[in-house]
């Protein structure tokens, strides 16, 4: 990962702590996930205290709102927190077109997951800001796992 320019950071108790990547990625331990749609990071929520995993609907709604749109598939993804949990990825507000691209979610030890992602940013400024986010819905069996977030750049 270091050779590829990746740094690794983890969210412990809701705060970012940077560490060096150091270990090669073992893709044999891939963890299945789905991406939730129809959610946005709330303007009154604080990114700095966002937990690295969300295990209840009330906790989810502390940070995210639901955005229903017209047409087929317009309802937000239903998340059953008895069977699933959510790993949120949220970037700071920006006026640039920004897309979080999830590359992989891996089980790297008996109690740790590693989320590999990168961010695609446009150059043109908008007249408004967005808060880019992705929500990964993961099996509740990983509820007590620590999550390491790995990206080629710091945010």
Describe it.
There is one protein chain. With 155 residues, the chain is mainly β. It is built from one helix and ten strands, in the order ββββαββββββ. The strands form three sheets. Strands 2-1-10-8-7 form a five-stranded mixed beta sheet, with no helix packed on it. A three-stranded antiparallel beta sheet has the order 3-9-6, with no helix packed on it. The protein has a two-stranded antiparallel sheet with strand order 4-5. Strand 1 and strand 2 (15-19) form a beta hairpin. The protein is globular and about 45 Å long. The model is unreliable at 1-22 (pLDDT under 50).
Short description:
The chain has 155 residues and is mainly beta. The protein is built from 1 helix and 10 strands.
Strand-helix topology:
Layout: E1 7-12, E2 15-19, E3 33-36, E4 39-41, H1 57-63, E5 64-66, E6 84-90, E7 94-109, E8 112-130, E9 133-139, E10 146-151
Parallel strand pairs: 8-10
Antiparallel strand pairs: 1-2, 1-10, 3-9, 4-5, 6-9, 7-8
Q: What spatial order of strands do you see in the largest sheet? A: 2-1-10-8-7
In total, how many beta strands? 10
Main beta sheet strand tally, sense and closure: 5 strands, mixed
Number of helices: 1
Helix proportion range: under 10%
Write down the secondary-structure element order.
Answer: EEEEHEEEEEE
> What's the N-to-C terminus distance?
17 Å
Strand fraction equals: over 45%
Low-pLDDT stretches are 1-22
The gross shape turns out to be globular
Query: Which structural category do the helix and sheet elements fall into?
Result: mainly beta
| Backbone CA Rg | 16 Å
Mean pLDDT: 84
């Amino acid at each position: 990962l270091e050779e590829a320019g990746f740094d690794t950071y983890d969210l412990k108790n809701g705060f970012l702590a940077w560490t060096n990547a150091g270990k090669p990625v073992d893709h044999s331990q891939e963890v299945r996930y789905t991406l939730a749609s129809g959610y946005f990071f709330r303007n009154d929520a604080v990114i700095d205290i966002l937990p690295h995993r969300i295990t209840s609907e009330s906790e989810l709604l502390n940070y995210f709102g639901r955005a229903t749109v017209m047409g087929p598939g317009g309802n937000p993804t239903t998340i059953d927190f008895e069977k699933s949990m959510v790993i949120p990825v949220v970037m700071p507000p920006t006026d640039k077109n920004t897309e979080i691209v999830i590359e992989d979610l891996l089980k790297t030890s008996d109690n740790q997951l590693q989320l590999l992602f990168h961010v695609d940013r446009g150059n043109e400024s908008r007249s408004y800001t967005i808060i880019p986010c992705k929500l990964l819905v993961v099996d509740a069996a990983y509820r007590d796992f620590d999550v390491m977030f790995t990206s080629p750049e710091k945010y």
